[in-house]
Amino acid sequence: MPSQPTNSGIIIDEKSGERKIPESVRADGTKRKAIKIRPGYRPPEDVEVYKNRTAETFRSRGNGPVPGAESLVDDRNPGASSATVAANKNAKRREARKKAKATGGSVNGDAQPEAATEELDPKAEKEKKVRNLKKKLRQAKDLKEKKDVGESLLPEQIAKVIKINELIRELDALGFDQEGEPKEVGQPVDTNPPEATKSSPS
């Protein structure tokens, strides 16, 4: 008489002691042959999973309450639980926030002073812009000299050389000459600087 089948379907014949998977019928009606299992083989389905008690207690440590915590709460205040204490505290905080909003103050009662915005000095701003334009003009003139000597320039550098007249116009609009010095009233604007009128050597 065969024993009960294991998880993998293996049975042990009590007469011969052989382990085998018995014959079975497929869905189409054909029969599967019985499969003999060699002695000592245990399929993965039949291997019992090792259970470490220490690891299991460690994993389930957060599921239950803290041991002894209930008795402490009951001793201090038998009618109240920790959940209601926290709920009351939160309700008080909400009320305090509502009152603070209604009065226009903060929760702690100290209002933050508004930061005063500082206006930039127009004269300092103008000087900064002039310094920037002078620097760009000086760089553009240096690049133009390099170009006149015959050095090859990058496209960005050529664009800077082209902007020389534009930079001079901007300086003029701010009241400075092409060298970046404050110009005298009534001085005409020279859009072609001496460097620009030089002919390149050929």
**Radius of gyration computed on alpha carbons:** 47 Å
* Helical run tally: 7
The percentage helix is: 40-55%
Q: Numbering strands along the chain, what is their spatial order in the largest sheet?
A: 1-2-5
Mean pLDDT over the residues: 77
Strand content: 5-15%
H/E element sequence = EEEEEHHHHHHH
What gross morphology would you assign?
A: elongated
The SS-based structural class is mainly alpha
The counted number of beta strands is: 5
Poorly predicted spans = 109-118, 196-200
- Separation of termini? 115 Å
Largest sheet, in brief, is: 3 strands, antiparallel
Region (Disordered): 1-150, 175-202
InterPro entries: PYM1, WIBG_mago-bd, WIBG_N_sf
Protein name: WIBG Mago-binding domain-containing protein
Pfam family, one: Mago-bind
